[in-house]
Every structure is written in C-alpha cells, then in structure tokens.
Amino acid sequence: MKRLCMAVMAVCMLLSCAGNEKKEAATLSGLQASKFVADVNGKSTGLYVLKNKNGMEVCVTNFGGRIVSIMAPDKEGKMRDVVLGFDNVKDYMTYPTDFGATIGQYANRINQGKFTLDGVDYQLPQNNYGHCLHGGPKGFQYQVFDAVQQGDQTLELSYLCKDGEEGFPGNVQCKVVMTLTDDNAIDIKYSAETDKPTIVNMTNHSYFNLDGNAASNAKHLLTIDADNYTPVDSTFMTTGGILPVEGTPMDFRTPTAIGERINNYDFVQLKNGKGYDHNWVLNTKGDVSKPCAILKSPESGIVLSVYTNEPGVQCYAGNFLDSTLTGKNGIVYNERASVCLETQKFPDTPNKPEWPSAVLRPGEKYFSHCIFKFTVEK
What we know:
By secondary structure, this protein is mainly β.
C-alpha cells in the first residue's frame, strides 16, 4: 500500500509539473508558442512576445508580420486582448485574412492592377473586383519575415521582395521594427530600399475591438482628424475625387459612435463601401506628434490613439466578417466585430499623380511611421 501511495504521489507530481510547464508556455493572452511553429517554403515561423514594465503584452508571428494579440489594461486594470486573430499559424495559412498583418508591397487597391512608371507598364494580380488589393494574393501578409528580437520590447522583421514578385518591379528590401514602449504604445517603423524604380505603401492591418470580446463595434467612439475623404465607386476603387466630410456620415471630427450612421445606405458612399471602408485625408499632414484618429470603447474605457507621418488613414469597419471564422478563445467573428485603422498613402496613388507619391527609386529610402497608443479613460 505504501508503494502504491508513493506511486500515486509521483504521478500527481508529474502531472502537476506538466500542467505548470503548459501554463508557463502560454502567453498572457493564452497563446501557445508551439502552435506557431511551421515550415513555409523552407522558412520557419514562430511567435514573438513583447512586454513592457506595465505588464502590457504584444504577440507577433513572423508569418505575414502579424500582430496576433495585444493585451492592454482597461479602466479597472484588467488586461483585455483588443485585436482579432487566430491562436495558431495553421489557421493564418488556411484562411485568407489580413488579421494583424504587415501589408505590402502596396496597401489598399490599385485600379485594375495596372500602373505605369517611367514609361513602363506593369500588370499586378487582380484579386479584388478586378483590382489589385494589398499587394496581391501572395502579398507580404502571406510571406515569412526574417525575425530578430532585440530584448523584451523590440522585434525587427525583414523581407526581400524579389524583382517581379506579384508583378512589382525591383528587389525591394523591407524592414518593420515594432517596439512596445513603456507608455503602452506599439511603435511601428517601416523602411524599404530598391534597386529599380518601384512603388511602396506599407501598413498594419490589425482588427481592433477595444471591448476585448469581438462583439459589435457599433458603440465604439471614433474620431478622425480629417476635413476630407476620398470617395469610392461600387468596386471600392477611389474615383479620384476628394470630398468634404461636412454634413455627411463621413464626418468624424468629433467623437461619434460607429454604428450611429453606418447603415445609412441612402448615402451612396456607405452603400458603395458596405459601410465604412474609406480613406480619410488627414489634417495632421505627416505630423507624427498629433493623433490622426482616436478609437474609444465606452465599455472597457480603453482608448486607442493613432499617430502617423502618412497623409491618409483607411477606416475599415469589418463589413465583410461573416461569422464563418472562429478566432482566439473560440470566439466567432461576426460582421463589424472590429475597426481597422490603416495608415497609408492614398489608394491607387500610382494612377493619380496629383496625390502624394508612393514611388521609391534606387538610392532613396522609404520610411513610414505608425504608433498605436493605448490609454484608459474612466
């Protein structure tokens, strides 16, 4: 009997140790690093964890340079995961989504996938209503970045986009540096160099839900510092015009609930975009010290302030989420369960020379800066 008791105790200790090991392997958001290990075209994927002195945590996978989770404190000090995503790399590889991704080589749409640069015509993939969206079906969000973690708070991701990849000219060496600062901001710096004239427009495509439960975004309050926006046609392509927000559902110059006007399809732009999926022309004009957009959850008290040196921000309200995807913690992602705030050059800029240029030439360096800063309003 004594031997039996000792054996039982030993088994219990082993199970306890195994349980502790499993708990230690999980991130604050509950992710298991082992579920992000894979081989994609000979390159290894993994999960990288950033932490600051306040206990905030950001998890990133080098598959697509994706932010997988962001644990931010709410008004009661409870940590909430405020972005949508999957809990394993297999789902990111299986389901074509942009959750948390680094987007490139050209974020947003290029009309019919065509542009002309220095008299040379280029044809890109047509993967969205006849247009090229987010660099094509094999854009950066589906590539494996080389990753180097520099301490607890900084991750450097790099990717060489080879000449002709998805139709873009030039060998373009891209770098993304993500830093979780001690004032609870995710500071993202993009840079790129090329050996041929090309176009570059990079952004992050995180789907934010500041309630932390991926429920409706309707009560989220949004502010965008913009007097104008770029209208789109029924294929989501910019028309080339720049229109005032004054007197329209596009006016977010004061905090406004996203759900207040989003279904006003009598306003043709909301009908064309199936809600909000538009680029706003920022008043901040590249001043990274001023917030270009602010998103707030009245429920959690979490406030997201966005800063950028770019001329535009795309607000996409998750209109195409359709309950077919199940993400972290078994949560089903329903329509309009999030808000994306993508800092960028304007859509289709290569075909609209009057807009801020996205051209990058040999000897030049592309640089884009975006900051997602989290605070609390009680």
